[in-house]
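Hi L., both proteins are below.
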Amino acid sequence: MNLIHSYISALTNLYGILPAELLVEIFNSQNDEKISMEEVNDILNDFPEELTKAYVYSYQGYFVHEAVVEFDEFDSLMGEKAGKPYYIPNKEELLKYTDDFYYEVTEEFENLLDYVSMHLIKDRDRAQEMVEEIQGSLEIGSDLNFIINHFNHFGVNFKNLEQLNEVMKLAMELSNNTRIWENNGHTPMEIFDKLERPNMRPLPKVPFDFNATNVIDMKTRKKIGRNDPCPCGSGKKYKKCCLGKDE
């Protein structure tokens, strides 16, 4: 497989759907020899068999993983990916993704594998086989029901609900730190840090007072407390007079 085809295979495995212009941008940023959009369009129009054998299809002007086409998920996946930045590894790491089964071995992966091999499947190799299957399903957006199915497939019987919850907690941590197609190769935690955390409202400096009100005395322009004199002039405390009417 030549270098351009290797990039196409690797990036399609990483993103699920690879725009032609992104291929050009990434390839040209990492290599002295440059490619043009014309060359890439020629590949899309006269699709090489070796890419098809690598589970890559030409679909609607994109390089698309076979699974996306097979399960008719192109439109839904494009919707999920919209507006999210792309994760772009360095060249050495990127080309590892030419292997359709490649995945990053994270701390969360090791934690789940250690638990499974210690408590559920004593054969370490078989335990790793199952955790690898879980990792692979998470990469394409599978939910926790699929994870349960993997345990069932390997004949795992949980001792009790507590053990099931321990495993699901580890699986969720793995899920949150797995690179997935709908996040353009980013993990859910990375997307949270990049897009959501900066927009989170900071906690107020003053603790919230459940006894406070949002009613303003129009004469003094000050907020009225529940135990302040009622602004209606009745002589009663606000909470014993007009508070219920205002709420």
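That was the first. Here is the second:
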Amino acid sequence: MKQKLIIASVISGVLSLPACKEGSDNGISDAFLTEGTTVVATVNDAPITKQAIDTVKSEFAKRSRQPMNIPDERWTEELVNRELLYQEAKKKGLYNDPDIRTKLALSARSILSDAYVQDYMKSVQVSDEDIQAEYNKYVEKMKSPEYKARHILVKDEKTAKQVIAKLKKGADFSELAKKKSTGPSGPKGGELGWFVPQQMVPAFSEAVSKLKDGEYTTEPVKTRFGYHVIIRDASREKQPPSLEKMKPSITAMIKQKKLQEHIKQLRETSTVVINKPEPAPAPKASSPAPSVSPQPKAASKTPAAKAPASQ
């Protein structure tokens, strides 16, 4: 069942745009026919061709993450089902739905523009001089020292200073790392291998860069992981990959640049008008609340107190 659903999903993506033929109903052709085409099935006289099967098989192979041996008979059955559903959709007039028509138009442009890009890329010539120039730029940018180091990571500064004191007395760094280090490299004697400064936290990299080969830090180096005692075993300039190894990726990058330049030229030689969205209408001012004249206070009904009679 899972395999069947995968096939149906791929076919849906591959055949989201039926082949178009001028004069066909709704602009959609019922056939994938060219000279020499092999018809493997018909659905209400509409042909299913070997070319269609080969196309979905090819697309499936590109998208699938694992090899799946699916016989042509299964592909034929799926395409027959897809054709039946397509014909029912035509009967219901679903092609006239504006959203569906938009999706079909977008699918056509996506397929054709991708085909044009592939065709253009085949025609782009990349010289050895261009490749060498890009490789030189890459090498210049990636210039960086590399260090080979070991470290002992402990939780507090006091322990780190005790480790340093033992090193000063001649203790072996790797043996101390195996006994004292709380980091994952401890069992390997604190070995970190080769690294560039950017791979480590700043405080660690700064401490390593200040050491000479064979020296260790005489003060603990604090990072968010704890306190480190570091020994720099060796240093060198980072070695870039060879030109031969980089050639395919550099060639692809140059071709991509040329494609972008080509698209830019197409825009410059075409009439492209991008309409700005109309500003949203300003909210109507709310009507002011009617003014209310203050009402005179009602006269008090409490009789006024009389002044006391003189005695």
